[in-house]
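Batch 3, record 17
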Amino acid sequence: MRVVAARGALLVALLVLWEIVGRASNPLLSVPPSAVLPALRDLLLLRSYPDLPASVLLTLREIAVAYGLAVVVGLACGFALGFNRLIGSAYGPMLAALYAVPAVVWYPSLMLFFGLDAASKIAFGFLLGFFPVTLAVLAGIRQVNPHLVTVARAYGAGPLGVFGRVMVPAMLFTLVAGLRTGLALAVIGVIVGEILGSKRGMGALINHAYGLLRTADYVALVLVTLMLVVGSDVVASLAERRARKWSES
Amino acid sequence: MKAPARLIAIENVTKRYATSSGPVEALHDVSLAVGEGEFCTLIGPSGCGKSTLLGMLGGLVHPDRGRVLVDGQPVTGPDPRRVATVFQDPGLFPWRTALKNVEFGLELGGMPAERRRSIATELLGPLGLKGFAGKYPRELSGGMKQRVAIGRALAIDTKILLMDEPFGALDEQTRVLMGEWLLDIWRRTRKTVIFVTHSLHEALFLSTRVAVMTARPGRIKSVLDLSMDYPRSMESPELVALRAKLWGEIREESLRAMQ
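Prediction for the assembled complex:
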């Protein structure tokens, strides 16, 4: 209860601050919350941007595909790197070096290669989401206590049994945390991709409002996007809780 | 009394390990036979290959030369229908409750959930773990953890129980009590136990036979048969004499191991 109160207090303080600063500065560039509310209402009633539902849907679909690919490829790469010593020592360091490069430098070439439509956003979301998943698998495999593998083998577990009953539960927390980070980064990748260059999707709408200095609409769009991001993270944290329960049952 | 059938036969077994400073011979031409229902203890200095020998019986380590037979058949890999192992590190699965850890081997064997649960639950009583079924390993003391691990081994009800210094990590008092408890379990279940230890007390208190191993490369130095009734008093003149004899042999090997 006190946590909620503290949270609310900070929010109210920020809103008040925003209102004061917003009213004091250039109305073209900054909007106080009191001006955002009507813009948000217009946005949600589809008055300012009638293609909002289509844009939200497109962005969500891009996120889903980008994240799906990131999970599948990330898991496959992670296990290949973790289980095969040659692959691991040959490509592991390369992967880590690649991860250190700010991913946004790849985006122009992705646009050149995949075009301005969904494909380049998916590719960028995938690129961002893929690394945390792969690295979480690698970290998870290192976390598995080899003695437990020996115990499982002594009690008759084959490779599949060791994988399912020892590896997966032992690495579950790390793995799920990586999957969650991967989702957050895939979402960022898709939206940043849209903002950097696209004709449709939430990022395109944001770009449009921002470019025309429709600042109140811009802020309203950002708020809607924020809802998407927070929503996806809530889903991810629910999944994390489920995984924890499963591993302890 | 007729000689018990040879349940376990270790025949001329040799094992080398590759290390960074060249190959090390862990076992050299070791032979040992153990009959059904025996409590056979392997004792010897650190690094004498006791655990390697146990690993071979469990099918986790393969000999370079020689062979290991259980029930007349060569051991090629872990065989949980015949052999159950208790390790020094209990190796409980931290995401499983005590009960679920005891069930582990039965689960791998494909037993239906209800049956394995009732078997595991019944085991918790004699293990002194009643009321701890739902506890996770992190909530249990060292002795309790090891009893869960022993429960996991007893649950699959094998003829042979391998124990690799199971009480080595416990404090002295717990250790003595666990020894008494294990003796009780063994006398009731009549399993064949191969027990690795550093403790003279454990060896003399529990065993029907004691095999003394040499410093590396491990060989069987001597085998003592102990025919005294259980429970044994460590103060009986017989055991005091045996203790001195056993200590003499182990001392010699331990000194060699230290050089």
